[in-house]
Every structure is written in C-alpha cells, then in structure tokens.
Design goal:
4 helices, Cyclic Phosphodiesterase, Chain: A
Length: 235
Amino acid sequence: MPTTTEYPHGKYPRWIGQKFDPDGNLLPFPGNTVICHLQRDALLHRVLLEMYDELQKQEFSHLYAFLPPTSWHMTIFEGVSDHIRKPGFWPADLPIDAPLSDCSALFQRKLQEFDLGSEPPFKMTVKGFEPLEDGIALKVRPVDAGEQSRLRQLRDRLSGCLQTRHPGHETYSHHLSISYTLRFLDEQDHEKISTFLDGWCAKLPKVFELGAPEFCTFDNMFAFHRQFCLTTIKP
C-alpha cells in the first residue's frame, strides 16, 4: 500500500494514495460494506449516464478518476476497509490484526441472521451535489421524516450488530459517488465544474427508490460484489 509520505495529504486529496494514484490508476482498497446499488432501469441511472458521458468530454475531466456506472451505489452502512484498522472502524469483537477474510466471514454470519425490520424500497430524494473536495457525488436524502427515521434506525442496528461505529456515524451524508478528485481544484476549475453540475441539477429526477441492502465485498472502488441481500425475518 502506498504511504502518506509518498502522497502527502497536504499535496493531494485524502483518497489519493489509498483508492487511486495521482494519475488516476486504481489501487487495491479491499473491504466490505452494506450498500444499495442504483438500479440500472431507474430514470436517475439513465440521466446520470448522460451526465457521465458529457462529464468525461469536459476540459477538466483529467482532474478526476471516474467510477464505472456498474459500481454506482448508496452506502447504507460503511463496513470496514482493510487499510483502516482503528477503534470504531474495525469490529470491537475481532482482533485488530485479524485477516480481512475473518472480518467478512464474521459479518456474513451476523448479517444472515439480521432482521432488516422493514421491506424495501427505500425512497430517496436528490438534493444536488456534494462539495467538490473529494470528488463528484450526488447528494441524496430520505424523502421524508419517516424514511429518515427508518434509515437512521437501520444504521444504528447495524452498528450494534457488527460492533463498529465510525466517528461520523451520526452525521453521515448519504451520496452516490461518480468520480474522485486527483488534484486540489483551483478557483477557476471549481467554478467551471460547479457551473457544469448546476446545469444538470434541473435534469435529475427528484425522487428515486433503492432496493434491498446488499452485503458486499470489494477489492477496489470499481466493483462491489454482492454476497446476499438483507431480508426481513418473518415470525
């Protein structure tokens, strides 16, 4: 794994040297997670594909590493990354130096018995784009207070089940990542990219649905391999 000395955070955005190198080459970043893939037949997916194609033709496209559309998803619960082994980021009931495969096996056993508690879909609304520091990501929120409570309770229950609680657990911002920034943006780049994204905001559907959460493993940011879907356990 590249070191932070090789790619210092003062010179590069935080994920350079972990998920990608400065030239946009994919780096190993294995882990596991609970996500909902964006359904390919969804209107949001179709419109994002149009934006994605146009985005790669822009003069500022060299500033980004683009994620393949097959990887587009919303994270329900972060899971673990093999490279990040600290309290909160790693299960409290597993040694900090345990192999990632042991962690994934532990999570799989627990989640196969986990009661999702309510039936999909999860209804979300598009709120624009996240700030541009780390990349281009669609900002999404639960469509109403009831959905917000359902997702918050699910995240809390998953945290208890898996014995992990990231420092940003309470303030986690739901999003759909499109690309990662390779360089810090100057004022001119920031203005051009913001103008481009603002032009697409009105074209994006405001409401979309997500299916059952999936327990996935991954080797890098290009593919999230579904192991199984979480289900509601009926009495």
